[in-house]
Amino acid sequence: MPTYQMSIFRMPKIVARRLEKVQRDFLWGGGNMEGKIHLVKWEVVCTNKEKGGLGLRKLAMLNKALLDKWIWRYACDKDNLWKQVIKVKYGQEGHGWRPKKANGAVGVGVWKEIWKESDWCWDNMIFRVGKGNKIRFWTDV
Q1: Residue 64: CB partners within 8 Å, gap ≥ 6?
Q2: Which of 29, 60, 71, 129 is deepest in the core (most CB within 10 A)?
Q3: What one-character DSSP code corresponds to residue 119?
Q4: What is the DSSP letter of 80?
Q5: Which residues, in sequence order, are CB contacts of 6 under 8 Å at separation 6+?
Q6: What is the CA radius of gyration of the chain?
Q7: Contact at 8 Å (CB) between 50 and 88?
Q8: Can you tell me the distance from the alpha carbon of 109 to that of 82, in angstroms, rounded to the nearest whole number?
Q9: Neighbouring residues of 15: CB distance < 8 A, sequence distance ≥ 6
Q10: Digit-coded pLDDT (tens) for 59-77
């Protein structure tokens, strides 16, 4: 699956499992009819090269990271055209670093799929106050 498509669309879990099976079968030389002995766990193969693995990425995590990158870009980019379109279509919260949640028929499409992964992204993001001119103490959480 091309990386660009993974960055826009959420990959179903069944597709990720099937693609990882293709990767495993290719790596271990097994086809559908023959069973080969696996001398190393798939988790070890997917670990970093520095830790003794091959550095292959798990596709589900890669898909989540690429989708969350759009949320990060929305928070950081100032005046890109795609951000302006999202702002006009869905609205924004706060000082423009977070869009409103896409609900119902108003959020069908690519952005709604990206937004489904945003809870994980926001839960793992840390903001620094800086000068304090974009922070509302009582309402920002």
Answers
A1: 117, 120
A2: 71
A3: H
A4: -
A5: 59, 62, 63, 66
A6: 20
A7: no
A8: 14
A9: 1
A10: 998 998 898 888 888 878 8
